[in-house]
Amino acid sequence: MDIEREIRKKEKVAAKLARASRARQKAHEQSQREIVCKFESHYVEQTALLGDFLARIITANRHKGMKTAFLLSGQVGSGKTELIRSIMNFATEQEVHMSSPSFLVVRDYELHIHAESANISVKHIDPHFMKKRLTNYVDLKQNPDIWFIEHAQHDGVAPLIRAINHTCSNYCIIHIDITAKPNSNTREFCLKFSLEWIQTGYEFCSTGSIPASLPAEYIGKPQIVSKTPSLHLRYYVRRIIWLKQWMRRTSANQDIIICAIETSFDDTCICLSRNGRIIWEKKVGQDKIHDEYGGVKPDIAASAHEQALNGPNGLIEQSKEECLRRCGRVPDLIAVTQGPGNALSLVPGILAAQRLAWNNSSPIIYIDHLMGHILTSTMPEFGNDIKFPFLSFIVSGGHTFLVRVDSPIKCTVLWTTPNDTAGEALDKCAGLLDINVVPAAPKMEELARLGDRTRYANHFKTVSTFSQLKICVRDLVAQLGSGDLLDAQILYDLMASTQTRAAEILASTLQSVLLETSTTTEYDSVVVAGGVMSNLEIRAHMAVVCYANNIRLIVPPIQYCTDNAPMIANCAWQTIHHSGMTVEGLWEHFVFLNDGPEPEPGNVLQLSQQKFKGLKRGIL
User: Fold this and answer.
1) Distance set, CA 155 to CA 134, 152, 466 (Å)
2) CB of 602 within 8 A of CB of 614?
3) How many CB atoms lie within 10 A of CB 481?
4) Which residue among 78, 80, 443, 565 is least crowded, i.e. fewest CB within 10 A of its CB?
5) Do residues 188 and 84 lie in contact, with contact meaning Cβ atoms separated by under 8 Å?
6) Domain 390-555 belongs to what topology?
7) How far is CA 511 from CA 166, 342, 420, 543, 561, in A?
8) Could you write out the DSSP letters of every residue in 60-124?
9) Domain ranges across the chain
């Protein structure tokens, strides 16, 4: 008897081990047929992007005649209902008010999908307060288009997955496990869905259509998403919905109309472009207004911008009329300079752009003023066919630097002036030489043609920066006598020598950078921009350097070297083109004001620097 008992005991142990082995084998086989995406999220933006991705899965399933079941597990407060709300907002492209069904156990919805002009049935279950197993609350015979099944206990989901797999063959089942980390806003998402489902027609999972924050490389390894400003989830959901609606609208129109506004300094500029080509532009200068001050007075400039833009028959009103006359509709996009520039001058342009965008329900894209100058020569009208990367030399009153341009949204500074900018130095030198107009440098260029550039060349031999150039001119004028008492020819000669030395400093800088970087980077061309580059003497010196180095020199027309609106419109167009017209590409560039009140005109002179920073984010 003891022997038989021992044999039965060993048989039971062997059977138990065999069952465990089969279970392990089955689990291994199941894991080989699943794709698992794990990542960590610090911000609600990630939840919104995940909702967009899962909504696309719903759409793909419907095209394949399949339905979708989402099984969400996680602790109380981990964000299950928030994610469901985000999914449905994207699927229907409208704001859906879905509250947690914790107390009612089940909620039923009948929702309309605009893209398909069809209604779908949705069943949302949350048996948090029930003691029975989850399968007791799910009637699989009801067969809705979308199941959302929440459960706080992780082990309660497995029986339901088996039941749905056994009963419903036309469902795509996606299990989402959300873990909220203690004492932190971080949440870990774990997505599981079958490999067979992906391999039977859902190519977007492997061709890059997954949002940039949820790429295929996240499979099997936790990732930390990049830090972005934390705003309410509703804002991100609406923002992506508006982006999709905007993309559909512009696709249907087959062109993109951009209205661009530029008010960074003393010129009020506005233009309209269609698919990157300028169809109308207008500029209002302020030179006469500032002559009596000997320079641009910020508060006067801001008031002049406000008057030019919003006064009777102002530029904004003219742009509306021209857009309706030429295009038959309002602009699709408003582009405006956000800086750098005179802060008080920038505010009227930003406010006008926001009011125009709000009235038209159009997005705003804020453009970097310097990037506008850098990309000026890429305007389609010029036909330059510039390829990236290229060198760009920006020489203006506020900036003097040389950059490598890798794309419309990325550049690297290779050299910058250690002290004064070229434009500032030339203007001040012109003032020392008795030129009292604003701006002074163009007038100095005109008079320098009457002078001898070699007469005082020896005095400028040791000058290597624009600050030294200014000091050298000051000392020469002091030696020869005050500027208003000097002989006219002496003044002309000084102007010619000063201008030539400035051109030599810029040319030698370009030569040095080309020698340093030519071994590592092959540049397509050198593009010059900025107001100072309208000076023909400086252009000539640049051309000599480029010819010696066998590289193209591209110079925009003189009227586009100074501040202008077409460069802002072109920069906006290049940014859109570079983004590939995708939600992920346009996400960080577009701002929508649809959700807020109409921007008030206000008194631009009373806006503080902090308020100005808020304006750039579209927060009034």
Assistant:
1) 10, 9, 73
2) no
3) 11
4) 443
5) no
6) Nucleotidyltransferase; domain 5 (3.30.420)
7) 74, 32, 20, 11, 22
8) HHHHTT-EEEEEEEE-TTSSHHHHHHHHHHHHHTS-------TTTSEEEEEEEETTTTEEEEEEE
9) 32-231, 255-361+576-616, 390-555
Q: What is the pTM of this model?
A: 0.66
For residue 216, what are its two tokens? 């295929």
149-182 per-position pLDDT tens digit: 887 555 555 666 666 666 666 778 888 888 776 6
Superfamily, domain 32-231: P-loop containing nucleotide triphosphate hydrolases (3.40.50.300)
Give Dmax (Cα) for the chain. 133
Looking at residue 607, its amino acid is L
Alpha helices in 518-608 (DSSP H): 536-548, 565-579, 583-586
Alpha-carbon distance 67 to 410, whole Å? 43
Distances in whole angstroms, Cα of residue 188 to Cα of each of 69, 78, 88, 128, 210: 21, 9, 21, 21, 18
Q: If residue 298 lies in a helix (H) or strand (E), which one and from where to where?
A: helix 298-310
Rounded Cα distance between 204 and 207, Å, is 5
The beta-carbon contacts of 288-297 under 8 Å, at least 24 apart in sequence, are 290/266, 290/438, 291/436, 291/437, 291/438, 293/438, 294/431, 294/436, 294/438, 295/438, 296/265, 296/266, 296/342, 296/438
Most confident of the following: 31-45, 69-83, 256-270, 585-599: 256-270
Do 255-361+576-616 and 390-555 agree at the fold level?
yes
Task: Say which amino acid occupies 395.
Answer: V
